Amino acid sequence: MPEGDTVWRTARRLHLALAGRELTRSDLRWPSLATVDLTGRTTLEVVARGKHLLHRLDDGRTLHSHLRMEGSWRVHPVPGPARLPGTTRAVLASAEHVAVGASLGMLDLVPTREEHTLVGHLGPDLLGRETELEVVLDAYAAQGDRPVGEALLDQRLACGIGTLYAAESLFLRRVDPWAGAGSLPRETLTAVLTTARSALVANCSRAVQRTTPPSLREPTWVHGRARRPCLRCGTPVRVDPLGTPPTDRVLFHCPTCQGSHPR
């Protein structure tokens, strides 16, 4: 699933292409929106909220989308691609650009004043203008024995972190992903959270996500590197399930550097 920085970049591209411009084409290929026509509406802005995209229009409505695992929005110069992919779920165009949403996991149209019904459950956005650090730390500390890796992925506590930044920040701070979040010292939680946020912010400005120094060929420390040597100690990196079905995920970790003990 795309991380918060990927969604932020997507929102930025859509905003630059469509904000302040009238929509000249609208094709929403979603069962509940199939008869909706947004042609003639003007885009006010497109913003990210965690992993959600909010496309606000001048008629007081918001087109909400979520990329889930495979979704994307691509921006093309007019007239756009000659053939749309079979997974196309939305097409929005101005006089200059065509935005194509493919394999979207969610697509909703709601009054802007009711955006909270779609994103109100989310915790503070780590890419927001003012990150509520103390609020997020309190939320993590209140998780008791819940594995800290699982807590980091809970968008209700703080939104934007996915498996990549959870794995990388825990590795960099030598924290066992299966340690109870509530048992960790506050300074440890602070270090993990600020590390994750710094990586998210840094990667907003580049297309290829990287958490390692430019001097290393590998772009990540442990994520995506199962069975390969840890860049710090040489131990084979492991990937193990985290959480409970059906919301369980997998997380990469170094059992030596992090003293990891999957449950």
How do the strands and helices of this protein lay out in sequence?
Layout: H1 4-18, E1 25-28, E2 43-49, E3 52-57, E4 61-66, E5 72-77, E6 88-93, E7 97-102, E8 106-111, H2 116-119, H3 133-141, H4 148-152, H5 163-172, H6 186-203, E9 238-242, E10 249-253
Antiparallel strand pairs: 1-6, 2-3, 3-4, 4-8, 5-7, 6-7, 9-10
Helix pairs in contact: 3-6, 5-6
Organism: Kytococcus schroeteri
GO molecular function: class I DNA-(apurinic or apyrimidinic site) endonuclease activity; damaged DNA binding; oxidized pyrimidine nucleobase lesion DNA N-glycosylase activity; zinc ion binding
Pfam family, one: Fapy_DNA_glyco
Short note summarizing the structure:
With 263 residues, the protein is an alpha+beta fold.
Overview of this structure, please?
Helices cover about 25% and strands about 20% of the residues. It is built from six helices and ten strands, in the order αββββββββαααααββ. The strands form three sheets. It has a four-stranded antiparallel beta sheet with strand order 1-6-7-5, with helices on one face.
Write out key terms for the chains shown.
6 helices, four-stranded antiparallel beta sheet, 2 domains, N-terminal domain of MutM-like DNA repair proteins, 263 residues, single chain, alpha+beta, Helicase, Ruva Protein, domain 3
